[in-house]
TrEMBL record:
It catalyses: meso-2,6-diaminopimelate + H(+) = L-lysine + CO2. GO terms for biological process: lysine biosynthetic process via diaminopimelate. Specifically catalyzes the decarboxylation of meso-diaminopimelate (meso-DAP) to L-lysine. Gene3D superfamilies: Alanine racemase, Lyase, Ornithine Decarboxylase, Chain A, domain 1. One of its GO terms (molecular function) is diaminopimelate decarboxylase activity. The keyword Lyase applies. The gene is lysA. InterPro entries: Ala_racemase/Decarboxylase_C, DAP_deCOOHase_LysA, De-COase2_N, Orn/DAP/Arg_de-COase, PLP-binding_barrel. HAMAP family: LysA (MF_02120). Keywords: Amino-acid biosynthesis, Decarboxylase, Lyase, Lysine biosynthesis, Pyridoxal phosphate. It comes from Gottschalkia purinilytica (Clostridium purinilyticum). The lineage of its organism: Bacteria, Bacillati, Bacillota, Tissierellia, Tissierellales. It comes from the Bacteria. This is Diaminopimelate decarboxylase. Transmembrane segments: none annotated.
Amino acid sequence: FGTMKVDNNGILEIGGCSVLDLKREFGTPLYVIDENLVRNTCRVFKNNFSLDGLNTEVIYASKAFLNIAMCKLINEEGLSIDVVSGGELYTALKANFPPARMYMHGNNKTVQELTLAVESGVGRIIVDNNHEIDLLEDICRSLNKTMTVLLRINPGIEAHTHEYIQTTKHDSKFGESIYSDEILNIVNRLSNSNYLDFKGFHCHIGSQIFEEESFFLGASAMIEFAAKIKDECNFTVEELNLGGGFGVYYSNEDKPMNLEKFLKELAILVKSKSKDLGLESPKFMIEPGRSIISNAGTTLYEVGSTKSTYGGKNYIFIDGGMTDNPRPALYSAKYEGAIANKMNKENEVNYTIAGKCCESGDMIIKDIKLPKTESGDIVAVFSTGAYNYSMASNYNRLPKPPVLFVKDGKARIVVKRETYEDIIRNDVF
Ligand code: LLP
């Protein structure tokens, strides 16, 4: 992916930096982000989800990977940002991300989170339910402010992906179903609110989805619903946010779509469909997270022990594991990897790459053919940019790895390695 290369000695390079140098200078485990690839992907989204006469916006779903440096990059590339908690909002504010381009999500935002969002002037809050609308109106009343909102709806499109990351079945915890008895009441309530400036709807049909058709169906359902609202509530929808979920390559089981072609087709579809249904072309937003950052991330580990079991299994033990990448344990996610200092050697041994946590499920890759591996070798696991660093934990009190941005032969730490001091920082003596 991106700027990855192998040098004449069989050493992997990312962003022009040799992994041997990175290991020497920064240690392992190490999250390495190919900055040019992230920037190019942002541009692919911006340049292709656009069409003459169509107002569009690309919003980065920051839950995939967020820190101050990433906020700055996203701002420089002209994307907006989606935050789902006080912590994500706080990070973006501290990075001086323009609040007007922030979108605040969540199915159970607290009063503190909503207050912080209103006080800091975030562009949109995506409201989830009646109770939250009550809270938000109260906050706006007491601060004497109005807040622009979208309503999260559930268009009932079922996308093919892992059960935990499917969001739009009828019983989803997110948003209000377009088929519910309550939906028109909520719409009327929002459009008549003194404190809320209601602009339209949001949906997100799931994550790691490969079927273009699911997105087209979701977009069509949103536009049809906007047309229905125009007829039944006499309310003109100005904005439709179609969410994210665009699937990426992790292993040869994954067949990502051609992003450029897909985005262009999506833009054409939403423009023509809204015209056909007599809508004055609303603004359309999309919210990619994983597809912006996933392929740009590589995790580097050092091999400690290797072990061949009585049962015939060959293990490679790495100095990280489910703490820095919980996705295999959580979703049975598959990854590809390599011995990054032996890229020119033949893959001849069947290995399982296991982490150092005290449980058997801590495996990062099962059954992968690699060159004969020994202690001190470097394991690279690919496409770890999304939902690895952001979902990392301190299980077994392991400090979290640092995050490194590499670009044109230069590396810069953007998140420092945690220390044992960090581990006990909030413990009370
Ligand atoms: N917008 C909303 C409202 C979302 O809930 C999400 C993801 C996104 C956008 C971005 O979706 P993406 O483009 O990244 O697929 N931890 C799981 C993924 C959970 C996704 C949750 N929502 C994983 O590691 O696969």
